[in-house]
Design goal:
This protein has three helices and eight strands, in the order ββααββββββα. By secondary structure, the chain is α+β, with helices and mostly antiparallel strands.
Length: about 150
């Protein structure tokens, strides 16, 4: 399944079903060594993540993007409910947005709903939606490979 992307005003919502259990998918969001394997658009050549994964904890995500240079995002975790929800504020330099990532059991898989609010303009919203969709594609490939290996 590809991602379902909806943009409305300053809000972006992306929904995707991953073929793995909820706790397994949640782990790819809650551990820096896993997050840096898939976060970033297709042109991301390297992603470095430092995170203090707890309510009130912060994170820094530095992406090296081919042809565009380096992009850094910092944020603070506002709410964490393992393995159901992660809410944080993301400072992208020229905008601070609120991101909510929800994880729902759907049969043997997991439906992830990412909602990001507070974009200053439609251009940034569309840019982030493309990068997030491409990140989800990478995550899907990693999860599919690991899930098959785990069941062998």
């Amino acid at each position: 399944m590809k991602s379902d992307v909806r943009i409305s005003g300053d809000r972006l919502q992306i929904t995707r079903v991953f073929n793995a259990p909820r706790h397994f998918v949640f782990g790819w969001w809650s551990q820096a060594e896993k997050l840096q394997q898939w976060s970033g658009c297709e042109e991301t050549t390297k992603c470095e993540v430092v995170m203090d994964f707890r309510v009130g904890g912060s994170f820094t995500q530095k992406m090296h993007i081919a042809g565009a240079g380096e992009f850094t995002m910092v944020g603070t975790y506002d709410e964490i409910v393992v393995p159901e929800k992660i809410v944080y504020h993301a400072d992208m330099g020229h905008a601070v947005t609120r991101v909510s990532v929800e994880f729902f059991e759907e049969g043997a898989g997991t439906k992830v709903v990412l909602t990001q609010d507070g974009f200053p303009n439609e251009f940034l919203c569309k840019t982030v939606s493309q990068g997030t969709g491409e990140s989800f594609d990478k995550l899907d490939g990693l999860i599919a490979g690991r899930a098959v290996a785990a069941h062998q």
